[in-house]
Design brief:
Layout: H1 3-31, H2 34-60, H3 75-103, H4 111-138, H5 142-171, H6 176-203, H7 209-222, E1 229-238, E2 241-250, H8 256-273, E3 278-286, H9 315-319
Parallel strand pairs: 2-3
Antiparallel strand pairs: 1-2
């Protein structure tokens, strides 16, 4: 799915969110349930966060320019962090209001209507959240992943809400309404923290070890003998675009043209294995005497030592800023 399609998907998601918010407030008007009100109030956060997510996707889709040579993709991390903060604030407000209503409860009514409307909203939210998160993972869009997790957490809390409303409906124990809302508030705060934690990791360029391991695996499975070693590898994410820096050791006698062809082969390999757009900056190093013992070039005329063993590339030796040696 293209970035333009991501934007269209987010716009549709925002429109659906507006409709669900209206339904939830309608349910509250019928029932006067504090738990339903907290669910409705969270929908306001969904709308605000969804609107900012839409803006960030539009901005992230802008091409590179003189002021932003790496593109505008970092805005997605900012969008996700704002969404995480808003989710957490919503959870805290829900806890505060529900605690107040625990001591000063409101009379609830027509819970059957509330249960029906809430169930419908929960089903729509889960479906929308599931597809949004999957699209985000497919295209490495933290904004869409955060939005999807937010919608799914809303749906999870709705399941508990429905169960709680059913218990209240049959037991007539009014204070359970506030207890239920407090539990939802805690769950929402946890979701907000998780989203915020991941967005901050992106802003701080925290190492994505899972992605690194996958890239190294591709290199190991498709390595050529003239790629004597790969080291000093680093990965930075700019939204859905991945930037990779690394050094590749090649025979010292290679011409600039030969080295360029090998670099191009590495770039093509990575871009065929990774779904997201990948930009590589590869520095070529000449081999040295210690390289001979693990160099697999069989027809080398200038070898200083016999080949001893092949070194498998892993996180430790690929991330280190030095040539491999036995």
């Amino acid at each position: 799915m293209s970035t333009k399609s991501n934007i269209q998907f987010q716009f549709v998601s925002l429109c659906i969110g507006l409709l669900l918010m209206a339904i939830k407030f309608t349910a509250y008007i019928f029932t006067h349930s504090n738990a339903i009100l907290t669910d409705a109030l969270e929908s306001i956060v969904n709308i605000v966060a969804g609107a900012f997510a839409l803006y960030s996707l539009i901005l992230a889709n802008q091409p590179k320019d003189e002021n932003h040579p790496y593109g505008h993709g970092k805005i997605e991390f900012i969008s996700a962090s704002i969404e995480g903060i808003l989710i957490t604030i919503a959870g805290i407000l829900i806890i505060i209001k529900s605690t107040y209503n625990f001591f000063y409860p409101e009379q609830v009514s027509q819970l059957d209507i509330g249960i029906v409307l809430t169930t419908f909203c929960g089903m729509v939210n889960y479906g929308l959240g599931y597809f949004t998160e999957k699209k985000g993972e497919q295209h490495s869009s933290l904004t869409m992943i955060a939005s999807g997790k937010h919608l799914k957490s809303d749906a999870y809390s709705t399941v508990g809400l429905i169960i709680g409303l059913a218990i209240i409906y049959f037991s007539k124990i009014v204070w359970l309404d506030s207890v239920l809302a407090i539990l939802f508030g805690l769950l929402i705060c946890k979701t907000g923290y998780d989203v915020l934690r991941k967005s901050i990791a992106g802003i701080m360029d925290e190492t994505d070890y899972e992605l690194l391991e996958n890239i190294i695996k591709f290199f190991n499975e498709n390595r050529k003998n003239v790629w004597i070693d790969v080291h000093n590898m680093r990965i930075i994410k700019f939204g859905h675009v991945i930037h990779i820096d690394c050094h590749v050791t090649m025979p010292w006698y290679y011409t600039t043209l030969q080295a360029h062809e090998e670099v191009k082969a590495i770039e093509d390999l990575v871009n065929t294995k990774v779904e997201s757009p990948v930009e590589l900056f590869i520095h070529t190093d000449p081999c040295i005497e210690i390289s001979c013992s693990h160099c697999q070039i069989t027809d080398c005329k200038v070898r200083q030592h016999a080949f001893e063993t092949k070194i498998d590339w892993n996180l430790k030796n690929v991330m280190a800023n030095k040539k491999h040696s036995l």
